[in-house]
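User: Please fill in residues for this 145-position structure.
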């Protein structure tokens, strides 16, 4: 079998476009608003992570403090009565987890309340702007004319 120089297997490199397709650009104000929203979301996420770590540290400290207190009470009782005291009724790991979950729930609730009361929530401002909701607080008995 013979392969000729003018075969259909010849290699032709494709040329890449000199410029990438351009998407319609954002105005500087829109770009700044998007950057601010991203930074706010990152800050919120970072604060949530820090709150969770703080809750874990607090739970561990509370557990060790309760255990130390129980050990001191046991020592006092054993010294005063002359018998060993076995108090397994102290704080257990499941109690520690329950306290930690309650603290996380309380912090989440507090964060949601803060976001709800905050007028700087960019997503809520955008929704309010689209819907036409005003943030004026008034009495249920006041009438708007």
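Assistant: Residues filled in for all 145 positions:
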């Amino acid at each position: 079998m013979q392969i000729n120089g003018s075969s259909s297997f010849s290699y032709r490199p494709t040329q890449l476009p000199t410029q990438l397709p351009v998407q319609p650009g954002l105005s500087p104000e829109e770009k700044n608003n998007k950057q601010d929203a991203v930074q706010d979301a990152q800050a919120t996420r970072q604060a949530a992570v820090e709150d969770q770590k703080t809750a874990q540290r607090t739970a561990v400290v509370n557990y060790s403090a309760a255990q130390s207190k129980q050990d001191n009470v046991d020592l006092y009782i054993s010294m005063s009565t002359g018998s060993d005291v076995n108090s397994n009724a102290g704080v257990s790991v499941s109690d520690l987890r329950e306290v930690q979950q309650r603290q996380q729930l309380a912090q989440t609730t507090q964060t949601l309340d803060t976001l709800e009361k905050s007028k700087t929530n960019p997503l809520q401002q955008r929704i309010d702007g689209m819907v036409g909701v005003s943030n004026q607080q008034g009495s249920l008995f006041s009438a708007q004319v």
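For context: The chain has three helices and no strands.
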